[in-house]
Design a protein that fits this description.
Two copies of one chain form a homodimer. The first copy, chain A, is α/β, with parallel strands linked by helices and 355 residues long. Helices cover 56% and strands 12% of the residues of chain A. Chain A folds into three domains: 40 residues; 247 residues, Rossmann fold (3-Layer(aba) Sandwich); 67 residues. Chain A contains 16 helices and seven strands. The radius of gyration of chain A is 23 Å and the shape is globular. The interface between A and B is large, with 48 and 48 residues.
């Protein structure tokens, strides 16, 4: 099974890829073997993370980006992630239907992921599915996540380029671009840019990026994210006019700030510029070595996650087979101390792995 | 070192206990050995968790409870935990000074813990320090934590009895008693009960406990915490008068709700009743087997934490010694896939443990 599935994935058979992702979602051990067999393609795709608040138009934008990348001759795989949905379906289903325009294009693969309450949850499923699409030879892999909770932060562990989307008029959408989130953005998009207030949102984001760049230059490093958050809150509260006067400008230095691009996803306006920017940033990062450095950090973070998930899985197994139960009872009856019990369990977990 | 420190702890030498807790805080391996040698005392103390919002008067109440337990001939160890402080000091130092009245009493031991940014952080340090005090033979161990973030939830992993403190007039303090928090309380305290609105807070807590008890009886189990949270929000919003009329009362059954006790910590009013309640609940739980069941669950949860901490520690070591670095590089150069790398790391971690 393993060999033929791996071969079919490498050949780009979409049904094989879909099957592999399902197996990975179900935690099938053999599926990990398939992924291992696919390592020759690791790191070949450009992985783009797209995130933003609900209602920012992420799916429509993704849809238009697919068309733009296809027009440039690139194949595209999409993973749509919805951490709020316990089932595949709901909003995701609607989004998938919206992207059905690409249903007959063999150069496009779209897959939704929703939490099934498994260990490691969506982060794990997303990391796995991304690798599977990369192995299947897609030039571009887009991971689209709703900007809630932990998911925006986790996306830096898989994406080479993170696109943060804001829209005017959502009220709290810019507020949602908090210190920690701003830092992960490589390209910023103000979607629905035909609405009132779009230019203001662009200016606010630029002001925040300038502040961030200055702080990172070491002027207030010790103060860190708190200072940045406070500064951003000020920008939002007082508006830009007040800030400009008192914001110290970098003394003659040019800072390379992430671009802020206006789009109207419904009409496709700004999408060619956005895609061009994403591709050229990737090429520049590749040339400068920044991409290698970034991927190295991401691999370390994923290794840590993988080890943690492995341990959590084995612990759950030892709970099912009664080993944890027996050790806990021994601790309770004082025939064993809890630290020795933990160490024994730790060893048992590993022996369980290698029979 | 290990043997003599263990012996001195079992003999109740407070300097030995203080030394052991410091070693445990610093992650000293030998200190775990000392704890293992102390297992004969495991489970001998009653561990009381005290939590509530900042400003609820936890420290003053703890101070008065110490005096009450001492008057009953019981020895008391106290762990004061402040997750918000990166250093021992600040609010905790003030609290310690407040408890200095017991400084010359050999039957009382008080220790503050604050996050030092270590792996496992405060949960780990708290669990360890609690075991150390238990081993030193204190009859009562009080763990006092500020009710912020995760700490109230973690306290059920160490405490036999959880005391939740509210006060009138804080505005959002009752709001802070959310669905998840209500469930962990064994005894509820309305402190500063000489203030206006104390009786209202008592009634609100009782109403929430009734709702919770009904939901737990299965009337709306499927809906779970959300229903409970919604119901609690209603109680807070509309006040009790409206609720009473529409709250379905248990049909003639008496439900054993946790007690809600009014105290004025400054004067000591209500403290004898509170301590009596805590002691009699513990005795009843011991007799009914409920304590055994609760401790069993707590031990399983702690085992899981301990295994997780162990893994995190080894991962950090392998990061320092370059092993993670080398594996990540191999993945990046496609000579290894990330899943095999994770498995290799997992095995390496364990071999590192057993030389």
């Amino acid at each position: 099974m393993t060999d033929s599935l791996a071969r079919r994935c490498l050949a780009g058979d979409p049904r094989a890829v879909a099957r592999l992702i399902s197996l990975l979602e179900d935690g099938d051990r053999d599926a990990y073997g398939v992924l291992a067999a696919l390592k020759e393609r690791a790191g070949m795709a450009q992985i783009i993370g797209i995130t933003g608040p609900p209602g920012a138009g992420k799916s429509t934008l993704t849809d238009k980006m697919i068309a733009e990348f296809r027009a440039r001759g690139l194949t595209v795989g999409v993973i749509a992630v919805d951490p709020s949905s316990p089932f595949s379906g709901g909003a995701i289903l609607g989004d998938r239907l919206r992207m059905q325009g690409h249903a007959t294009d063999p150069g496009v693969f779209i897959r939704s992921l929703a939490s099934r309450g498994r260990l490691g949850g969506l982060s794990k499923a997303t990391a796995f599915a991304t690798r599977a699409l990369e192995a299947a030879g897609y030039d571009i892999v887009i991971v689209e996540t709703v900007g809630v909770g932990q998911s925006e932060i986790d996306i830096v562990k898989v994406a080479d380029t993170v696109v943060l989307i804001a829209v005017p008029g959502l009220g709290d959408d810019i507020q949602a671009i908090k210190a920690g989130i701003m830092e992960i953005g490589d390209v910023f998009v103000v979607n629905k840019a035909d609405r009132d207030g779009a230019d203001r949102v662009v200016r606010e984001i630029r002001a925040m990026l300038e502040t961030q760049a200055m702080l990172q230059k070491g002027r207030a490093v010790a103060a860190g994210p708190d200072t940045l958050a406070a500064r951003n809150a000020e920008i939002l509260h007082h508006g830009l006019a007040d800030m400009r006067a008192e914001t110290p400008q970098p003394d003659g230095e040019r800072v390379d700030l992430p671009p802020v691009i206006k789009t109207v996803a419904e009409t496709g306006e700004g999408v060619p510029e956005l895609c061009a920017e994403i591709l050229s940033r990737f090429a520049a990062d590749k040339a400068s070595g920044a991409l290698d450095e970034r991927r190295h950090k991401a691999i370390v973070a994923q290794l840590k996650d993988l080890v943690g998930w492995q341990v959590a899985e084995y612990f759950a197994e030892r709970e099912r087979d009664g080993r944890v139960e027996a050790l806990a009872r021994a601790v309770q009856h004082r025939t064993l101390d809890i630290y020795s019990a933990a160490r024994e369990l730790f060893s048992a977990l590993v022996k369980g792995e290698e029979p």
